[in-house]
Amino acid sequence: MTEWIWINGEVIPLSEATVSIEDRGFQFADGVYEVIRLYNGRPFTLDQHLARLERSARGIEIVPPMSATQLKSEIGKLLSRASLHDGMIYLQLTRGVAPRNHIFPQTKPTLLFYARELPPMPEIDRCEPVKLRTVVDERWKRCWVKSIALLPNVLAKNYAITNGADEAVFTEYDCVTECSASNLFAIIGKELITHPVGPKVLPGITRMLLLDIAAAVGLKPVERPLTESEAETADELFITSTTREIAWVSHWNGKPVSPGHYGEKSKKLHAILRDKIARETA
Amino acid sequence: MTEWIWINGEVIPLSEATVSIEDRGFQFADGVYEVIRLYNGRPFTLDQHLARLERSARGIEIVPPMSATQLKSEIGKLLSRASLHDGMIYLQLTRGVAPRNHIFPQTKPTLLFYARELPPMPEIDRCEPVKLRTVVDERWKRCWVKSIALLPNVLAKNYAITNGADEAVFTEYDCVTECSASNLFAIIGKELITHPVGPKVLPGITRMLLLDIAAAVGLKPVERPLTESEAETADELFITSTTREIAWVSHWNGKPVSPGHYGEKSKKLHAILRDKIARETA
What we know:
CATH superfamily of the largest domain in chain A: D-amino Acid Aminotransferase, subunit A, domain 2
Largest interface: A-B, 51 and 50 residues
CATH class of the largest domain in chain A: Alpha Beta
Oligomer: homodimer
Number of strands of chain A: 17
Radius of gyration of chain A: 19 Å
Shape of chain A: globular
Helix content of chain A: 25-40%
């Protein structure tokens, strides 16, 4: 099945889509991106993703070439053509093409997005756990910008995999911040705890949704730094991301963590998230 | 005049050169690069640049698709075709094209380089100074890798320009490390001082040459962290880079710095560097 991409206003097969080697996304990582999950052929929390795109773009002084409303309409048209049930949209915005120079050029940004099929999410009880490996955080200090300068994340993720884990969790001094491509949550007693958004933590959309949902399962949402030993000994521990929703953590640096299965409260949060997804993408 | 690029073994006009939007250089900043200066149509310190390319590539676990010797020969062929007198080669190596996923794919790296004309360097007495602006260092901690994840450098440089300077100099606590696209040197008494290479400092080729040359002008090369006040009050202060050679610093955060003109010792270093360039590119 052909995958389609919208690139600077044109819709073409993804396999044919290219950018100039002088696109600043290629030479300077001078751009931002979003990944949006599709359920039932519809994008979930698209408005929130497009709002974050605008914040990221503003954070690096790129002016998007169209409004969120226009972009939403163009994404809708691409989705009609793609006609996927389960999948994702990958969207990228760069500062555009110009002869290589650090100085911001006067040029038109490059904007593209494509839809790709993904397997449907498994039932909650069948969701696979993840094994985490700690990696000292060597990333830059504006991780709240969802930039394409992902090399440190890529290196951390692969270091984790080489060491028998699935995902890297960043540590800074004694604290754990987030993972290479997901946020981290701990349930300790009656609290649902995650690190505040900022220099080292991206404002994950699923992260935000779970903080909203917490109260519904009797948990108090708390945004504070979490120490490594708190995370390791939490009652329940999970990661969140757009494409994974929630994945419970089974191992921390090779050691099993509590409770050894998908925790009851985590599962309840997941069930409420699923209800919301079903409602909003019906 | 057509600019030529060698891209994955093919030589084509630069204006036609593209990469897949799923090249990891475009989606993950998953690559490294080099810039080599051409004098008299010949690349200066090409071996040193290619050695650094290999170190950078190893640092992020990319295996270059050819040896430095083969690469040197291909660069030579492109230069014959380009027939430039003054110019540069821009070279980039990425992990290649694969469906987007943080995990290292099994794929062939993307390798490209192109030659571009530059104006000849002015006589030493006519070299323009630079105004520096301090910027808190928010970059990652592997700056010794010459990676294309340059977004923080781009933002710092443009912040400097917006604030009336030409180049950003990074500060970390009380120390100054390097600039957004150059290394920083201070002459204090009989010492030529620059920050050691490491997490926050790239092993600049011109930097290395100057440390070698220092003794010839009676200066002791010293690699140690330099405080901001030492830099501001140094006898002479300059930056180095492949394309600028040496540029003396006239202002630091808007204030004039010593000696207010191109310093005598700095100029002597520059003259010896020019002799070396002339000899090696004759």
